[in-house]
Amino acid sequence: MTAALGPGDLAEAAALLGAAGLPGFSERALAEELARPGTIAIGARAEGQLRGVIVGAAIFEEAEIHAVAVRSDARRRGLGRTLVAAALDAAAARGVTKVFLEVRAGNVAAQQLYLGLGFRPLGVRARYYADGEDALQLALELRGR
Questions:
Q1: Which of 12, 16, 47, 55 has a Cα-to-Cα distance from 27 of 20 to 30 A?
Q2: Mean pLDDT of the chain
Q3: What pTM, to 2 d.p., does this model score?
């Protein structure tokens, strides 16, 4: 169900991320991201369509999740959890011991997902998003996971 994103997935992944309101993930930006060492980019397919995607990066012992998007017709079925778990496994395989992310203060569903996976609050980035919404900073220790 999940697999690393490749060049053939870029258009579909960019469209999915854009539809989820995540700016900055054009086909070109994703291609550049995939070319960087340490990138973690995983997609989930069903019935020939990309249903969800996660993009992040691992640098030494730390990783950051940059974006998670699930098609609206595939939400509330555990796909987000599956994608995050796959990314955490990929990060751990690279020697990562701590993972960070930011999530919109108003995105309660995503917060519940991350907290349910063991992420813990670190702080708040005031007015982090272009629309002025705050971001909650979360972290997860992978040791002993």
A1: 47
A2: 93
A3: 0.92
Q: Domain ranges in the chain?
A: 2-141
Predicted local confidence at residue 38, as pLDDT: 95
Give the residue ranges of the chain where pLDDT is below 70. Answer: 144-145
Q: Which of 102, 99, 134 is nearest to 117 (CA)?
A: 99
Matching CATH number, 2-141, of 3.40.630.30, 3.65.10.10, 3.90.110.10, 3.40.50.300? 3.40.630.30
Residue 126, CA distances (Å) to 104, 105, 133, 137 in order: 10, 10, 7, 10
Print the SS3 string covering the chain: CEEECCHHHHHHHHHHHHHCCCCCCCHHHHHHHHHCCCEEEEEEEECCEEEEEEEEEEECCEEEEEEEEECHHHCCCCHHHHHHHHHHHHHHHCCCCEEEEEEECCCHHHHHHHHHCCCEEEEEECCCCCCCCCEEEEEEECCCC
